[in-house]
Specification:
The complex is a heterotrimer of chains A (131), B (446) and C (476).
Chain A (H helix, E strand, L loop, with lengths): L9 E2 L4 E6 L2 E6 L1 H7 L2 E5 L6 E2 L4 E7 L3 E5 L4 E6 L2 H4 L3 H4 L8 E5 L11 H10 L3
Antiparallel strand pairs in A: 1-2, 2-3, 3-9, 4-6, 5-8, 6-7, 8-9
Chain B lengths: L7 H11 L28 H12 L7 E2 L12 H7 L2 H4 L11 H18 L3 E2 L6 H16 L3 E5 L4 H13 L3 E5 L4 H4 L4 E7 L10 H11 L4 E6 L18 E5 L15 E5 L12 E5 L6 E5 L6 H4 L12 H38 L5 E2 L8 E5 L3 H10 L2 E2 L2 E2 L10 E5 L6 H13 L9
Parallel strand pairs in B: 1-13, 3-4, 3-5, 5-6, 6-7
Antiparallel strand pairs in B: 2-8, 7-8, 9-10, 11-12, 12-15, 14-15
Helix pairs in contact in B: 3-11, 5-11, 6-7, 11-13
Chain C lengths: L28 H4 L16 H12 L22 H7 L2 H4 L9 H18 L3 E3 L5 H18 L6 E5 L5 H8 L3 E5 L9 H8 L4 E6 L12 H10 L3 E6 L11 H4 L3 E4 L1 H4 L14 E3 L11 E4 L5 E4 L15 H37 L15 E3 L10 H10 L6 E2 L9 E3 L7 H20 L1 H5 L12 H6 L6
Parallel strand pairs in C: 2-3, 2-4, 4-5, 5-6
Antiparallel strand pairs in C: 1-7, 6-7, 8-9, 10-12, 11-12
Helix pairs in contact in C: 3-12, 5-12, 6-7, 8-9, 12-14
Classes of the chains: A alpha+beta (131), B alpha/beta (446), C alpha/beta (476).
């Protein structure tokens, strides 16, 4: 299955994506992740100003039958959350890479960006999960 | 007796179908030395023998003509339609309504229960119920630590002592620090680290606390600290200010008073309600209204299940699976039966009758009402000779009040008296007669 | 059909049918209670009695119970609920007894006698009847583990839970302050001994929570090895008794080597499920753990009087009063009715019925773990034509006027259909269930649309769970 993955963003093995612009990163979950979760009904967004390490859970994404954690792809401070998702969490299903972005972070260590996956590497992860 | 329909021929045919000879072949995979040949349990009984035996055991208990005992479990009149409805076997022999389309009856009833509890308490959200008042309070403590990410819970004096014990056990399980504070030193205990303060009103001793004032004070010095209110006889809400109109964040109660017989203290009903903003952190089941996928008709379904253990597993805020559905149904039918006019009248009678007794008792030499605040249907009575008083109650077929020293050993000679709408004037006067008989200047005569 | 909710049937008419006449002279209420504490509005409906009765009789007609027909929910043991138990629970000498009254020997006798019976049935040494439900029992069992190790000054922070466990197991462990080590079942549906041993050797592991037979309905043949490995590494073994029914009079958790057992009286011992409660989840323990049981504990005096025994080592109280006495009483009545022989027939026939269904249904449906099962077994939706899902099958089963099995559980089988018929179903009912499932299989091949849009014959069509969760409407 083709998940309309994008070339211009970076991925994580836990199915987040980051679009980096200077020291700012926009974070969301991938089209594959939203497909696995099914219809998303609620997203618990973090407080602005929170500083978290790479890999820590930052938001919870609920569907009817499952719940997933959004992990910080790199360490940083939360500077904005997508308030529109409070009323329309389904945007993460319909537009995971655009309107369904979840949060913006100020990246703490730019060297951590090197640990993120390219589209090719991420595709391999999806395949290894059997899809 | 047993309730297995097969005869020997059927069993033999079914075994043959499986290619087996005897029932024991079904257990070939169990190590031989684990197979139990015979349980050391008496042979089965027929229905009449069973009934006789249990009636006989029940006679070792005593049912009294009138009751003055409350303390968390209350004698109120139960309208006959309560038992009629909960005896419909489509309700009581059902499981949790997993298949919504074949469980619309129960789902709608639970939705109606949530609605009526929400109206009664004026709280935004009521869940489908918990085990009982004590565990509902413990779950509220845990929920408050999850919402606030803080780890201290303060229990105010006056909470039912068994509830305090339950909260202690739950908090120990999760390493939550529990402090017990009196109203006077409450403010000294308040700090940024406190997740919630729990208060009972009317409290265990009968006092109606001024929750509005207390909660205002708390919110003023600790705006992020949650306030949890608990009560053990919510019939008082027929008259008293509902928690939803105060600063209460989570309100829980024991719902046994709503149409559930005492039954030695269980099953009861854990009423659990909260403000809307805490919806996603509420433990337990919730029923919601929705629509057909391929149509326009409205129906009911278990919802927000991603909060619960079967999806969230160890990340769930509680391990609770079910509610006390049949008890919730009892409470619903009770509240509908009496209606708003009836509940107001019931609460009023509880207040008036208890007050009548209080006033008269206070006039008898040696007796003292210890409550300084207004009371609902319970109050503390200091009496000259508690032992004689209790024996005499039993002699005249009255279930005596609670000896409060059974929970508070220092409070000797004090009874916790409970009067509800079913205590007739005659029974109240009989109670007064006993008091007069053992009044201070009269002790030698008895 | 009448679909109004009860609030729409209210009249503004006072109903005094259920209120005694006020016979003391009433004062002005505000003389007793300050006005600021008195509520102004009380927005409860006032519905005439006849309308209340009709409303709920009609609702009951839109609900399915064991008394309606076969209720094959796996792991729920939906057996027939004997009516005599309901009569007994309503004997005034039980139902009208206050938990704090002194003349209570009858009630205490029920508690102590049932404890003894459960001790014999499970091979444990002591019991508490306090827990109000199975999950509540799990919490108690784990708190006992916690206390046991605390008492020995040994730090244990982890619990092993196999991936086939009920969802409550990890949630209960967390409530007792433990973190989880999940062990994957092998292709036989059993706990792999090498993985278990490896996990146990990780140091601070308090023990294991296990269901046997497990949620696949499979008896773990290595059970004695499993409990031995856990014990040798300083752990305790917890038995989740949700699946005890097939073991009645056949094989006891105590003999398997378990230290703590919780039971579900509403499953194994026939008390009604009540639509999701009240239940009862007693916990049994070996002798060494008796000091940690929750309060209150009962003992029988020399003169036959039963009284409360205080223990400083107890985990404390976990519920007000004495447990769900009304449920405990029904279970006691059931065990007395059946006796030793009746109980062991329950175990054997529940297994016969399950295997009869398994053996016949596997002719069409995929059975991932194909061996003699115990009380239940698990099919999957693999190989069902036209992308028909487990949910489609379940909804279509409702159309035939019976209830569906447990679906999508256990999680280790994709598209699971978990089936438990219990011992109280006749062969005719079992045959009819098989026929219906075969018919549905054929429909999946020939007319898949009828499954995808099912149910058609229920009071309402398939409901929108997504809408319910996105915009929760939880009250009127």
């Amino acid at each position: 299955m083709d998940y309309n993955l994008r070339e211009d963003i970076k991925y994580t093995a836990s199915h987040e994506w980051v679009r980096v612009d200077g020291d700012i990163g926009v974070v969301g979950i991938t089209s594959y992740a939203q497909h696995q979760l099914g219809d998303i009904v609620f997203i618990e967004l973090p407080n602005i100003g929170l500083v978290l390490e790479k890999g820590s859970n930052v938001a919870e994404i609920e569907s009817v039958k499952a719940v997933g954690d959004l992990q910080m792809p790199v360490s940083g401070e939360i500077i904005e959350v997508n308030k529109a998702l409070e009323g329309t969490p389904e945007m993460v299903n319909s537009s995971p890479f655009d309107d369904g972005w979840i949060l913006k972070i100020k990246i703490k260590h730019s060297d951590e960006l090197g640990t993120l996956l390219s589209i090719e590497e991420y595709k391999k992860i999806i395949e290894s999960e059997g899809h | 007796m047993d309730f297995i329909p097969h005869d020997d021929k059927t069993i033999a045919e079914m075994l043959k179908d499986l290619g087996l000879k005897e029932l024991d072949d079904l257990f070939d995979d169990i190590p031989k030395d684990l197979l139990k040949t015979q349980l050391n349990i008496p042979p089965g009984l027929s229905e009449p023998d069973l009934l006789n035996k249990l009636v006989k055991i029940s006679e070792e208990n005593k049912v009294y003509q009138s009751n003055f005992l409350g303390a968390g479990n209350y004698f109120h009149y139960i309208p006959s339609l309560v038992d009629f409805v909960i005896s419909r076997s489509e309700f009581y022999t059902a499981y949790t309504p997993y298949q919504a389309e074949a469980s619309q009856g129960y789902l709608q009833a639970i939705y109606e229960y949530q609605s009526i509890i929400s109206r009664l308490t004026q709280m935004d959200v009521a869940n489908a119920s918990m085990y009982d008042g004590s565990t509902a309070l413990a779950e509220a403590a845990i929920m408050s630590t999850i919402i606030t990410s803080k780890n201290i819970v303060i229990i105010m004096e006056g909470i039912h002592p068994e509830y305090v014990e339950v909260v202690k056990t739950y908090c120990w399980g999760q390493n939550i620090e529990l402090r017990i504070a009196s109203q006077d030193d409450l403010m000294n205990n308040l700090s940024e680290e406190v997740a919630s303060i729990m208060i009972q009103s009317p409290n265990f001793f009968g006092d109606i606390e001024d929750v509005v004032e207390i909660s205002k004070k708390i919110k003023k010095s600790a705006p992020n600290c949650l306030i949890v209110q608990v009560m053990t006889d919510p019939t008082c809400l027929g008259v008293l200010q509902p928690p939803g109109l105060t600063n209460i964040d989570i309100f829980v109660a024991e719902g046994q008073a709503f149409g559930i017989c005492p039954s030695f203290g269980g099953p009861g009903l854990g009423i659990f309600t909260a403000k809307q903003k805490y919806l996603r952190k509420i433990p337990g089941r919730l029923v919601g209204k929705t629509k057909e996928l391929n149509g326009e008709r409205e129906g009911f379904i278990l919802t927000l299940q991603a909060r619960e253990q079967h999806i969230r597993r160890e990340k769930a805020s509680s391990n609770i699976c079910t509610n006390q559905a049949l008890c919730a149904l009892s409470a619903l039918i009770y509240l509908l039966s009496v209606g708003s006019h009836g509940l107001r009248e019931i609460a009023t009678q509880n207040i008036q009758k208890a007050h009548y007794l209080k006033e008269k008792l206070a006039l008898i030499p040696g007796y003292e009402i210890l409550n300084k605040k207004p009371t609902y249907n319970e109050f503390l009575l200091k009496c000259p000779d508690i032992d004689k008083f209790i024996i005499e109650c039993k002699n005249v077929n009255i279930l005596p009040p609670l000896r409060i020293s059974s929970y508070y050993p220092n409070m000797k000679n004090v009874l916790l008296v409970c009067v509800t709408e079913i205590n007739s004037k005659e029974s109240l006067d009989k109670f007064l007669d006993i008091a007069s008989k053992f009044q201070e200047n009269n002790m030698g005569d008895s | 059909m009448d679909t109004k909710i009860i609030f729409e049937k209210s009249f503004n008419r006072s109903n005094r049918n259920f209120i005694t006449k006020m016979d003391v002279i009433a004062k002005d209420l505000t003389e007793i209670i300050p006005t600021s504490l008195i509520r102004k509005e009380l927005p409860l409906p006032n519905v005439p009695e006849v309308e209340i009765v009709r409303h709920y009789v009609n609702l009951s007609n839109k609900n399915y119970g064991v008394d309606t027909g076969i209720y094959p929910l796996g792991s729920c043991t939906m057996k027939y609920n004997p009516k005599i138990n309901e009569v007994i629970a309503r004997i005034p000498g039980f139902s009208q007894i206050h938990p704090l009254q002194e003349d209570n020997q009858g009630s205490l006798r029920i508690l102590i006698e049932l404890s003894k019976l459960l001790t014999e049935i499970t091979g444990m040494e002591g019991f508490t009847l306090q827990p109000a439900a199975g999950a509540h029992g799990e919490l108690v069992g784990l708190l006992i583990m916690k206390k046991y190790f605390e008492n020995k000054n040994i730090l244990k922070t982890k619990i092993i839970v196999p991936d086939s466990a009920h969802g409550t197991n990890p949630a209960s462990a967390k409530m007792a302050g433990f973190s989880i080590i999940e062990v994957q079942s092998n292709e036989q549906g059993e706990v792999p001994l090498d993985h278990l041993e490896y996990a146990m050797k990780q140091g601070d592991v308090a023990g294991i929570m296990l269901t046997n037979p497990n949620t696949l309905g499979v008896f773990d043949r290595n059970i004695k090895e499993i409990t031995r490995i856990v014990h040798e590494n300083g752990g305790l073994c917890y038995y989740d008794g949700a699946n005890l029914n097939p073991m009645l009079g056949v094989c006891r958790p105590g003999d398997m080597g378990f230290d703590i057992v919780h039971l579900n009286l509403h499953k194994t011992f026939s008390t009604p499920h009540g639509g999701g409660g009240p239940g009862s989840g007693p916990v049994g323990v070996i002798e060494e753990l008796i000091p940690f049981l929750p309060e209150p504990c009962l003992i029988s005096n020399k003169d036959g009087m039963i009284c409360v025994e205080r223990k400083d080592t107890s985990i404390g109280r976990i519920k007000a009063f004495w447990g769900n006495f009304g449920i405990i009483l029904r279970a006691y009545s059931y065990i007395l009715a059946l006796g030793a022989e009746g109980l062991s027939r329950v175990g054997r026939i529940s297994v016969l019925n399950a295997n009869y269904l398994r053996h016949n249904l596997k002719k069409r449906f995929h059975l991932p773990y194909d061996r003699i099962c115990k009380h239940e077994f698990v099919l999957s939706d693999k190989g069902i034509p036209n992308d028909i899902t487990t949910e489609d099958i379940a909804k279509r089963i409702l159309d035939y006027g019976i209830y569906a099995p447990t679906i999508y559980f256990p999680l280790i089988v994709n598209g699971a259909l978990m089936i438990e018929p219990t011992e109280t179903e006749t062969r005719n009912n079992l045959d009819r269930f098989i026929d219906i499932l075969f018919k549905i299989y054929d429909e999946a091949k020939e007319n898949p649309d009828i499954l995808k849009k099912a149910p058609h014959n229920t009071p309402i069509g398939r409901l929108d769970a997504v809408l319910a969760a996105r915009t929760p409407k939880l009250r009127e």
